[in-house]
Amino acid sequence: MFSVIIYGRNDSHGYNLHKRAAISFNAIAEVMSDPDDEILFVDYNTPDDHPTFPEAIQDTLTAKAKKVMRIFRVRPEQHVHLKARTHLVALEAQSRNVALRRSNPRNRWILYTNTDMLLVPRNEKESLSDILATVPDGFYQVPRFELPEMLWEAAFDRRDPAGNLAKLRDWSMRFHLNQVVYNFMPMRYDALGDFQAALREDMFAIHGFDEEMLLGWHCDSNLAARLALYRGSVDTLVDKVFGYHCDHTRVAAANNKGRQTKMNDQDRFIWDVSTPYLPAQAENWGWPDLEIEEIRLDRDTAFERFAAGIGAAIEPATEAYRTTNLEWHLFNDLTYDLPHTLPFVCDQVLTYPRNSALMFVGTRADFLTRFAIAWRTMGFTGPVLVPNECQGLPLDTPGVEAGPFADLLRRSDMFIFEFGLATQGVSDPVRTGRLAEAMDEKRLKVVSRLFRQAASLEEETRPAARRLPRRFIGVNVIYNRFWPLFTDYVSANINPFCGQVLAGNPRIDPSMKGKVLRFRGRYAI
Amino acid sequence: MSEIGIVTSLPDRIADAWRKGLDLLIGRRLTISPRTREEEIFLRARNLARAGELQEAATTFGDAATAAPDLIAAFENQGELLDILGETEKARSLYEAGRILRQRLRGATPDRSFVLRRAGRSTAEIAAYTTVLQSVKQRVLPFIARGNAFLVEGRPEPALVDYEAALKLKPGLSDVLALKAEALLMMGRFEQAATTFDSACAVQPRNADFLSGRAIARLALRRLGDADADWRVQFELLPAERASARACVALRLADYGKALPELEHALAKEPCDPYWRLYRLTALGRLGRPAMPDAKPSLDSWPNPLLWLHAKGLSTEEVLARADNGERRAEALFQLGVLALPHDPAEARRRFTAIVDDAPPSMIEHAAARHELAGLGS
Asked: Over the stretch A154-182, which tens digit does the pLDDT of each residue have?
């Protein structure tokens, strides 16, 4: 019957985002009763190494919310062409249009709202699906009622949407919450963007939201102006449903800087609107030709993929624990526990696009074998690229493609550089003072050289159409001699030794030292 | 008011009079006078509600709904006020009554401009945008929105005034030019309408709404070939999901081969729409595959008598007797012509000629009759 379209990213937009969003997702799912109903969440421009916002809070969502939610992940690389035109990190019009394009065509209605709304049917026996099934074609709004921050934060249980809706029915009277704020036509109500229900076919006819609105605010009013022109009237569902907004102004959100807030031009986008249509974007609104990843919370989850990948690559441990040691006298011991390290490496790649091509440069054959198994089993379809320059690696492993380093550099979306001992077996003891053998040193030298080259040449060797820096993952680069090398070239956080993994983008160090390093790296000096 | 009060308020009064005079001079209407008794009641109720006299306003909205049972906004506004006053159940029934009325409305055919696809009274919208205009005078949206509301009510003259006010603010806006042309079309000023559509189409040559309007203006000017050219482009521009609109364009062209599959799609989407059923029978008949309607629906509502006609359940005289206005008569004459074509071309010609002589050119039947007559060699 209806597709709810909301958007956001995995950040901290306003006060206690995680709680109010969970409350909202669960409450919206609770008032859905048609099998075609769906919540479309566009996760816009979350960094690639983070999960999407709903994935990050999935444990607080009800089974029903997980079932009805479809997440469309818009990657930073897909946003970067707009970056210079906006100060915002998440764009409303683009997000909502991406979802609209991909919404269930069987649904008659599109409902635009936000991640902090609770919709309460006035008749407890009716769902929102029931309500929308009976109303005639039109463009409908509902006034927004405000909820003091203390109420939703202190009294709501985010996993009990029915209880929360019941509380609202009580509080609305007890605390005098219901105040309708009228507005000029065509807006009808204040804060109209929290409930705008339009026919799906109308939204397609008018070409979605205006994607020229890149500065935030008034996207809802622009839509109201255009739909009011298209439909002739702005109708209300105030007799059927109340909408409550979890107020979140204790902490200003990124798009709220008081009187200094940058906004879309009201005159251009509201009062000078002359047509419902947007012919300039008629063919490309919602990025119809772009492949947008879809993520579900009720199937093929990140954990399921991770567990499957690790499960396929390594056997469970047979002992209670194993040990390693970071004392300084072991600085030159490059042994590490592969079965323990592999899960931390997989964790670094899991959130990336499944069609990514990953370059592996390393020394340990068993690492490549096991990682390649995990990579495929986690659902990645892109290749693991291994330079011919790396000797002793099993290049016939399924999913592995070998080639000259210079060629593979231009195909890689991310990198793993592994600094281990080629001679170490999987059951050898770890960090007991073992020294590298001649073959180990020879192969480590190759890895170091390729690493410095890759990091120094990263920007100029990006695959065609890629504009953002690629991620470098270093394995066995903490508290050993490759720690300074890796962090000279890559902006990595300080990570616990236990994981053996550092990751980050190439470091742009403007100092003389940085320039020298880049020069040496570039020419493999 | 004291003498001091009069003196101190004088500059404001002068400024106010100056502003009003200026508005009048440049054609901006910032107040609306009711045309009918029910409009007057509605506007009084609206003013009472805005002044906080909720009980009296609710009663007055009720009076407006009684005086004009098709004034949907009166039902909804009364419902809203009763809701505020605690009479929730009664309020709900009024909202429902409004929605039922809204569901029954039928605007122009789906191939026409979005603004004409709506129907019913726009008293509330006209009042609301007039209020907006008192604060937002220098922007086009309120003028356009109010102009559209007038047009929906079938009042092209005040619509034209508003569109021209918008064009004074933003000269050359093609979307407003096209709306202005629609108003001119409605006023029967076909030559001006065609010229104005030409200006709009010069800016947006692939706007399906503009082409639709210009085709009708050209048809009215007896430029059938030019009209057909616009309709053919319009047909190509309309996306597949707007099957009903594509069907209407094909019917105007009397291209029944093109119309039939679109009508099938339209029927699949809106199986209860009697016009898609009727036009499907028309297309089948003209393609030499005459068919009977699946069922004989109630004769109480139009165009069901025409479905009965196809089922041979009503005579010509009975159908014409039920066609109680000019447009219905044209629809009836067209179906009679279509049914007569295979065995009595002369009779068909008479029917089609009557449509072309009397029916407005915006009707599907008018354009289709023109094409049928051309096919008959007239």
From this structure: 999 999 999 999 999 999 999 999 999 99
In a mutational test of the A interface, the residue from B76, B141, B167, B210 whose CB has the highest number of chain A CBs within 10 Å is B141
Q: Where are the domains of chain B?
A: 31-105, 107-237, 252-378
What does the DSSP assignment read for B17-67?
A: HHHHHHHHHTT---S---SSHHHHHHHHHHHHHHTT-HHHHHHHHHHHHHH
Q: Is-contact B248 B364, C-beta < 8 A?
A: yes
Choose among A333, A389, A390: nearest CA to A367: A390
Q: How far is CA A51 from the centre of its chain?
A: 5
Pairwise CA distance, residues A390 & A368, whole Å:
11
Confidence of residue A274 (pLDDT cuts 50, 70, 90): very high
Residue A331's contacts (CB-CB under 8 Å, 6 or more residues apart) are A479, A480, A481
Query: Are domains B31-105 and B107-237 of this chain identical in fold?
Result: yes
Angstrom distance (rounded) from CA A525 to CA A370? 32
Determine how β-strand A384-387 pairs with β-strand A400-403.
parallel
Q: Do A225 and B142 touch (CB under 8 A)?
A: no
**Beta carbons of A473 and A345 less than 8 angstroms apart:** yes
Sheet containing A38-44: which strands, arranged edge to edge? Answer: A235-236, A139-141, A196-199, A109-112, A2-8, A38-44, A69-74, A293-296
The DSSP H or E segment spanning A73 is strand A69-74
Nearest to A267 by CA among B169, B161, B26, B148: B169
Are A32 and A71 contacting, i.e. CB atoms less than 8 angstroms apart?
Answer: no
ipTM of the complex, rounded to two decimals: 0.90
Task: Enumerate residues 68 to 87 of chain B having a beta carbon within 8 A of any beta carbon in chain A.
Answer: 76, 79-80, 83
A226–B contact, CB cutoff 8 A: no
The structure tokens listed for B291 are 């068919």
Under CATH, what is the fold of the domain B31-105? 1.25.40
Q: CATH: 3.50.70.10, 3.40.50.80, 1.25.40.10, 3.40.50.300. Which one for B107-237?
A: 1.25.40.10
Distance CA A196, CA A4 (A): 10
pTM given for the model: 0.93
Residues of B with Cβ-Cβ distance to A223 under 8 angstroms: none
For residue A292, the number of C-alpha atoms closer than 13 Å in the C-beta half-sphere is 28
Q: Is B192:B220 a contact under the CB 8 Å cutoff?
A: no
